[in-house]
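We emphasize that the prediction below concerns an isolated chain of 364 residues; any contacts that depend on oligomerization or on bound cofactors are therefore not represented. The input was used exactly as deposited, without trimming of termini.
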Amino acid sequence: MKIITIIGARPQFVKAAMVSRAIINHNRKTHHPVEEYILHTGQHYDETMSDVFFKMLNIPYPVWQLDCGRGSHAEMTAAMLMEIEKVLQANRPDYVLVYGDTNSTLAGALAAAKLHIPIVHVEAGLRSFNRQMPEEINRVLTDHLSTFLFCPTYAAIRNLKNEGITNGVIHTGDVMFDAALAFGEIAEQTSTILTSLHLESKQFYLCTLHRAENTDWQERLSQIIQALIEIARPDCPVILPLHPRTKKQLHTWRLFSTIETNKAFRLVKPVDYLEMIMLEKHAKTILTDSGGVQKEAYFHRTPCITLRDETEWVETIASGWNQLAGYRIENILHCLDNSIQRTEIEEYGDGHAADKIVRTLSNP
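Result of the prediction step, given as a token string:
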């Protein structure tokens, strides 16, 4: 069986690491190996957000490396679609495997569907119910094109059923939980990020900020930045690893001078995955607009405030570990002061989601 895996964005590298590792383990035990070939669209082209992940997570290096990380959503997706189609036509895999909700995901799914190649969607069924988000469009369309829909939660299965999708839907748990278990201890043993940034455990806030809905709207980005400035203190600084899009928009909206008014609000370069795990595990609170970071906050039992108006990870809200704040200063500050009861989540599986995915594909 031959699979072409299509990835392009940072969270997908982590998910792909777990499934690729499960494929390698599977091949050691069977006479019917799974051949996996990786295509990297180039959606994230910053070295610290792409190349280093292959080295660090032991993901097989891409057989095909595209350069489709620039331009508008339409330009990026169109460029990916044309190049992916060429690869699929020349290689005719049994399956095309895609992850999550990026432009790379949609382009891979569309190219495969047009060529009648079955699509495997890992992290299927998630819904924010906000069609203003490009990610929502990508995930909905990909789900409706897919043959196998591997769901991280039971809520995702219910979402698919409500849209009339029941065939090929399987609850596996979350491959990101697999990764949190696998790499959490490695991070503690190898990362020096806390020392290099002069941070004490549970005495700093961690923020990640990259979604277009926040960065491309001046009022939203300005209010979030102002809230971060207000909470940053010398004894509890705010650490913001700077995503390329966010850096660009901070320049566009002339917000760097505002940030400089509080030296405890610290912008740092993008960090690698193990460093990010350490920051997540040891932060007092995480403030983020990332879907993946919301879950990782829960995995590491760190309170999270989501800088969006909705989330596809509804179980993190129900558990009390995550709160929706949107972008307004007063809401963000309220969530920081809010004391709520927290419970455990059972939907994310047992840390073997990737193994279940590979077993299912090997014995459809």
